[in-house]
C-alpha cells in the first residue's frame, strides 16, 4: 500500500512539473542583425539583441549591443558564456572578429577584438577551441586566429582562394568552414566557384594544409554543410543556395586525405518540382540527437503563418525536416513547417532539441517554436517578436 501510494505521489508530482514546464519554457536568445531602414537617414544600425523567452513570450533584455559592430552576421557560443561574433561590414572595408562574455541575464561584456579581411560571414572553431576560422566572403579568403586568450585574438594565417578557372572575373565566395567529426579536416563551401575547399589540420601545430577541392556542377552554389558521424560511417550534407538542393556524401579517410562520394542530390523541399524563381537555400542543421536534418529556404514562400499575437496570416517560407537513416545516411522528407515569416537565413535548435529559433530577415521577425524530439516535427510558436533591425542569425544561450 505504502509503496503504491509513494509511486502515485511521485507520478503526480512529475506530471504537474512537466505541465508547468511546458507553458513556461525559459531560455535566452542572442540575435544578430544587419542595419534596417528605408532611407539612410532613418536606418537603424545593426547589432546583437538579447531576447528572453518566458511566460510572456519573447522580450528584449537591455539595449542592442554594438560590440560586434553594426553588421554582425554570425555568432558562436562556447559552453555557457564564451561568445564570439563577426562584423561582416558588407563590402565596405575590413571586418571585425570580437569575443565577449555572456552575462547571466544574456547581455554581452566585451573581451577583445581583431580586424579581419573584408566581409566575414562565419566563425568555426577547431583545435579544442584554441583556433578560430573566419570565412571572408567578400575578400575570398579564410583567416585563422589564435583564440587561446579570448581577450587577445591574434590573426595567424590567411588562405586566399582563386577566382573560377573558367571565368576569372567571378571571385571565390567562401561561405562557411566546417570541421569534420575527427577534428582533422575542414571543408569550405565556395558559393561562386562551386567547390568545397578541403584542408587537413596538423594536430601538433594546428596549421592548415590545402588538399585538392571537391567540384560541384557549375551553378550549384554550395553555401553551408553539416557532417554526421553515424556508427563507423561519416556522412556530409551540403545545402546549395543556387540550385536549392541538398547533396549527400559518404566521407572516407586516408592518410591526410578526406574523400567525398556523392550519394544523392535532392531538392530542399524533398519534391521533384523546379525551385521557385528567386528562391535560395540557406541553413542546414542536424538535430542534437542526430536523427533529423532541417533546412531553410528563402523566398520560396509557399506556406502561411498565423502570428500567435493575432492579426492577419503572413506569407511564410518553409523549414523542411528530413529523417536520417542512421545506416545509409539517406533522407526522408517528414515535414514542411512555416518558418513564421520570409527569408529565414538562419535557425537553431536548443540543446535538447525541444525548441527551434528562426531569424526571418524579411520581416525582422524572431520566432521560437516547440519541437517534438521523437518525431522531429516543429510545432506551435511559444514566442515571437519583431525587431527594428534586419535579423540574420539566432542562437540559444543555455
Ligand atoms: C575593437 O573594439 C574597440 C573597443 O570597443 C573599438 O574601439 C574598435 O573600433 C574595435 N576594433 C575594430 C577593428 O572594430
Ligand atoms: C584589413 O585587413 C588586412 C588583412 O587582414 C590587413 O592587412 C589590413 O591592415 C587591415 N586594414 C585595417 C584598416 O585594419
Ligand atoms: C564571366 O562572368 C561575368 C560575370 O558573371 C559575365 O558577365 C561574363 O559574361 C562571363 N564570361 C564568360 C566568358 O562566361
Ligand atoms: C560556369 O558558369 C559561369 C557563370 O556562373 C560561366 O561563366 C562559365 O562559362 C560556366 N562554365 C562552364 C564550364 O559551363
Ligand atoms: C524573391 O523572388 C522574386 C522572384 O520570384 C524576386 O523578384 C525577388 O527579388 C526575390 N527576393 C529576394 C529578397 O531575393
From TrEMBL:
Residues 1-20 form the signal peptide. Keywords: Signal. GO terms for molecular function: 6-phosphogluconolactonase activity. The keyword Thylakoid does not apply. PANTHER family: 6-PHOSPHOGLUCONOLACTONASE, 6-PHOSPHOGLUCONOLACTONASE-RELATED. Belongs to the cycloisomerase 2 family. This is Lactonase, 7-bladed beta-propeller-domain-containing protein. It comes from Cercophora samala. The lineage of its organism: Eukaryota, Fungi, Dikarya, Ascomycota, Pezizomycotina.
Amino acid at each position: 500500500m505504502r509503496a503504491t501510494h509513494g509511486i502515485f505521489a511521485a507520478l503526480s508530482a512529475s506530471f504537474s512539473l512537466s505541465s508547468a514546464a511546458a507553458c513556461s519554457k525559459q531560455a535566452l536568445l542572442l540575435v544578430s542583425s544587419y542595419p534596417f531602414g528605408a532611407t539612410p537617414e532613418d536606418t537603424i544600425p545593426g547589432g546583437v539583441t538579447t531576447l528572453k523567452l518566458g511566460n510572456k513570450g519573447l522580450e528584449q533584455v537591455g539595449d542592442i549591443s554594438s560590440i560586434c559592430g553594426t553588421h554582425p552576421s554570425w555568432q558562436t557560443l562556447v559552453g555557457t558564456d564564451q561568445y564570439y561574433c563577426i562584423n561582416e561590414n558588407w563590402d565596405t572595408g575590413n571586418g571585425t572578429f570580437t569575443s565577449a562574455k555572456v552575462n547571466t541575464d544574456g547581455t554581452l561584456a566585451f573581451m577583445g577584438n581583431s580586424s579581419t579581411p573584408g566581409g566575414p560571414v562565419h566563425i568555426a572553431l577547431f583545435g579544442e577551441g584554441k583556433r578560430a576560422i573566419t570565412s571572408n566572403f567578400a575578400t575570398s579568403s579564410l583567416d585563422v586566429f589564435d583564440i587561446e586568450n579570448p581577450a587577445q585574438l591574434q590573426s595567424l594565417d590567411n588562405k586566399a582562394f582563386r577566382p573560377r578557372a573558367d571565368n576569372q572575373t567571378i571571385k571565390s565566395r567562401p561561405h562557411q568552414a566546417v570541421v569534420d567529426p575527427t577534428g582533422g579536416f575542414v571543408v569550405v563551401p565556395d558559393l561562386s566557384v562551386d567547390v568545397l575547399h578541403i584542408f587537413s589540420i596538423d594536430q601538433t601545430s594546428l596549421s592548415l594544409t590545402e588538399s585538392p577541392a571537391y567540384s560541384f556542377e557549375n551553378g550549384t552554389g554550395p553555401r553551408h554543410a553539416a557532417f554526421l558521424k553515424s556508427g563507423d560511417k561519416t556522412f556530409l550534407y551540403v545545402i546549395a543556395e543556387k540550385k536549392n538542393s541538398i547533396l549527400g556524401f559518404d566521407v572516407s579517410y586516408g592518410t591526410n586525405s578526406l574523400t567525398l562520394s556523392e550519394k544523392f542530390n535532392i531538392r530542399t523541399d524533398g519534391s521533384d518540382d523546379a525551385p521557385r524563381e528567386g528562391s535560395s537555400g540557406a541553413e542546414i542543421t542536424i538535430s542534437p540527437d542526430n536523427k533529423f536534418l532541417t533546412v531553410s529556404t528563402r523566398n520560396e514562400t509557399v506556406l502561411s503563418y498565423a502570428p500567435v499575437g493575432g492579426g492577419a496570416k503572413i506569407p511564410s517560407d518553409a523549414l523542411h525536416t528530413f529523417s536520417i537513416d542512421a545506416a545509409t545516411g539517406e533522407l526522408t522528407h517528414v515535414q514542411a513547417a512555416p518558418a513564421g515569416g520570409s527569408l529565414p537565413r538562419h535557425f537553431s535548435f536548443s540543446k535538447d532539441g525541444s525548441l527551434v529559433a528562426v531569424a526571418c530577415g524579411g520581416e525582422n521577425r524572431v520566432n521560437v517554436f516547440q519541437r517534438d524530439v521523437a518525431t522531429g516535427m516543429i510545432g506551435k510558436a511559444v514566442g515571437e517578436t519583431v525587431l527594428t533591425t534586419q535579423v540574420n542569425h539566432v542562437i540559444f544561450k543555455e
